[in-house]
Amino acid sequence: MTEIVRLENVSKEYALGEHRVHALKNVSFSVDAGVVLAIAGPSGSGKSTLLNLIGLIDVATSGRVVVDGHDISGRTPDELAEMRRRTIGFIFQTFNLFPVLTAKENVEFPLLQRHALTKQERSRRASVALEAVGLTAVARHRPNQLSGGQRQRVAIARALACGPKIVLADEPTANLDHKTGEGILELMKEINRKLHTTFVFSTHDQKVLDFADHYVGMEDGELRFLGLRKDNQWLISDDRRRADRRKGDRRRTVRSADEAPGVRAPEQ
């Protein structure tokens, strides 16, 4: 499988007055193309910071981030913006739709940055993306005429219209009821199977984790778990559990997923 994301000893610090906040501490893992990955953890664990680094919105304080084969170290803001346009799609938990635009116009809006595309091609791509999420019938509706689930589907279509290799979703079910949230997750899973688009979720919602193929568990800015779903069960890699096994605690024995495809610890 082709690797789409790699992080090597990545740390991120922020200045907060006279203090330094360590949002990420020496995080290392890689992700293969075409997987559904959940970055899970409580509030303040660093999962949103990790998502911003993968999405080329932020840069690491130290370490190396490689996205789609490109090391982003030392890139200018303009270079990062161009890489985002070519590679990344975003789905926001608050949808971020323009209220004065129709569903189709919202989907088409980011394509305006693709100056090589004709008006007809932009319209075609927006129509295809809306069809993929089952919203052709409401293409002319504005956001206030749509349900929460429909607005989230428009946001997904907007992310897909640019043909991204990676789609990032920050708490994709946070503003949806349980049934609608499950429907949205099923839709993204179907898109993943059909288009082989890599989906990366930042979440603390168990139902999002249940839909993922792989997950990265974060706690206090550190990577705690790497997980791979196999035969409807999770195979977990946890350094603390392996330490316990070395001490003879067989009750906490788990199979290692370190070398499994999808999510894994990079080779040293």
Please, could you describe this protein's structure?
The strands form two sheets. Strands 6-7-8-3-9-10-11 form a seven-stranded mixed β-sheet, sandwiched between helices. It contains eight helices and twelve strands. The protein has one domain (3-93, 165-264): 3-Layer(aba) Sandwich (Rossmann fold). α5 (148-161) packs parallel to α6. 32% of the residues lie in helices and 29% in strands. The model is unreliable at 240-261 (pLDDT under 50). By secondary structure, the protein is an alpha/beta fold. It has helices at residues 47-54, 77-87, 103-108, 119-132, 148-161, 178-195, 206-211, 239-246, and strands at 3-16, 19-32, 36-40, 62-67, 70-71, 88-91, 166-170, 198-203, 214-219, 222-230, 233-237, 263-264.
User: What composes the largest sheet?
Assistant: 7 strands, mixed
β-strand percent reads 25-35%
CATH class reads Alpha Beta
In order across it, which strands form the biggest sheet? 6-7-8-3-9-10-11
Per the principal axes of the C-alpha atoms, what is the gross shape? globular
Mean pLDDT: 86
CATH topology: Rossmann fold
Number of strands: 12
Q: Poorly predicted ranges (pLDDT <50, ≥5 residues)?
A: 240-261
Question: Cα distance, first to last residue?
Answer: 19 Å
CATH architecture: 3-Layer(aba) Sandwich
Task: Give, in order, the helices and strands.
Answer: EEEHEEHEHHHEHEHEEEHE
Structural class: alpha/beta
